[in-house]
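quick one before i forget lol
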Amino acid sequence: MKRLLRHLSVMLLCIAVAACTRPDPPAPSAKPTPPAVVANSQPDIQTMRIDAGPSLPALTLSARVTYAEDGYSKISSPLPGPVLDVRVKLGQAVKAGDILMVIDAADIARAYAAYVEEISELGLAERNYELTKDLYDAQAMSLKDLEHAENDLNRERAEFKQAKERLLSLRVPAAELSKPLAQQQITSRFELRSPLTGTVVERNVTPGQIVGTASDQPLFTVANLDRLQVVADVYEHDLSGIRVGALAAMTVEAYPAVEFPAKIAVIGDVVDPATRTIKIRATVSNQDRQLKPEMFARLTIAGHTMRPKIVIPKQAVLERSGRQWIVVELAPGRFEERPVTIDSVTDNQVTIREGVVTGERIVLSPSSINHMAATDTSAGGA
């Protein structure tokens, strides 16, 4: 009996040992997700986060203050003759239509005499035509005589119109010519008037002076000094960040601590072949008259007024096969090469147009990664 119990104990012990040494069943295999790019273990791989910010730093340009293109006028006399009177002084404010000076214009006297003569000739031709037509209707005149009278009438009408247009070109008011001849008051006195409201900033005439019609010698310059323009030259690589309507600040040497607000109004359409620059114009208010035309100035276009872009160090960009690439950190130890589109290069910075977004991290020195192993997604799924 004791021997039987001993054998049973030995059998139970063997069964227990066998159960403990049985291998675990294999776990179901999970399909691995291949990383986009895995880098070998590399110390000191420096990265930077792409943060939102202005595309470019503030751009400061040398400039000069000028009149607004539609805010000034150089005025010459359309008629020759001696100056009888000068009505304005240098620096005087004038309104559109104000008289600047009076000229004794002999051209007006001659043109008006021709006009009066044509009025008489036209009246005679009209009466002659009416008489000839009545005689023709009464069969007392031939058709040839009637046609001759009609031709004379048409010629006199054309000459009258020409004489009238000549007076109008000499700035004789049309309202005066529409009056009856006996009420017309047209003399050789010609009044030169200001075409716009502003200030007389140039005066190159005196009473008694004989003036001509040369447009290259203006007698007056009238300008609106309440609104001026700033003209600056921009190099090609700085042009992409400038937009019409962008705000800017202007300073001049006379008031170095004062910033005058300006607004980009015009961007030139042509490049100067000598300087490789494009002219831009900004408007600036001058209500207090501190600014003077032809002052030298500095125009600063703030970066936040430009189109938002991403700027990264130049060393973070690789160039291969004619394309530019960056290395993006997907996770610690996992990287991805990505093509980018470059907008511009300034000093040691590169402006990126496409290929990376804010919030991502890029490798500052991709050349520090000696080897990058990329796993094809389709191969990993096989």
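fyi The first strand starts at residue 37 and ends at 39.
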